[in-house]
Amino acid sequence: MTDKVSVTLAINGREHVLSLAPERTLLDVLREDLRATGTRRGCDAGDCGACTVLVDGVPLLSCLSLPVRLGGCDIRTIEDVDASGELHPVQRALIQYGAVQCGFCMSGIVLAAKALLARNPSPTVDEVRHALGGNVCRCSGYARVVEAIASVGGRP
Ligand code: FES
C-alpha cells in the first residue's frame, strides 16, 4: 500500500487539506471524498470529457489528473458555476435551445464552454465545435449544444 501524502487543494474558492494516496485521481477525490458529484465519471480513461473541471481557467480531465500535482491551483467544478444562485449564460442558453437530453455530459460541456467564452467572448460555431472536441454527448445532441453556446457570444 502506498503512503498517503498531504495536499491542499483550492476547490471552488475553498481550501481542502487532504491526506491522499498519491495515485488517486482528482475525479475520485471530488466525487468520493468531497461529494462534488456534479463532476461525472464517464469513461474514466480520458476519452469522454464528462469529468472536465477548470484548473486555473483551463479545462482539465479530472479522471487523468493527480491532486498531488494541483496544489496551489484554482480548481473549479460545475458546482461553482451557479453558486451565486443564478444560472450561467451558457446554462440558460442550453435550456433555451432545448439542448439538454440525458444531461450526463453537461457538466463537462458547460465548463468547456465557460473556458472558451472567457478567452473568446464571441466564438464562431466552428470555434465552439473545436472547443468541445473532447466532450462526448452520448445522446449525440451536438447541433443544439453548439448553437446554444455560440448564441451566448452573439453568434446564433
Ligand atoms: Fe474523464 Fe471520460 S471520465 S474523460
Automatic annotation (TrEMBL):
Pfam families: Fer2, Fer2_2. This is (2Fe-2S)-binding protein. It comes from the Bacteria. Residues 5-81 form the 2Fe-2S ferredoxin-type domain. InterPro entries: 2Fe-2S-bd, 2Fe-2S-bd_dom_sf, 2Fe-2S_ferredoxin-like_sf, 2Fe-2S_ferredoxin-type, 2Fe2S_fd_BS, Beta-grasp_dom_sf, Diverse_Oxidoreductases. Keywords: 2Fe-2S, Iron, Iron-sulfur, Metal-binding, Oxidoreductase. PROSITE patterns: 2FE2S_FER_1 (PS00197), 2FE2S_FER_2 (PS51085). The keyword Aminoacyl-tRNA synthetase does not apply.
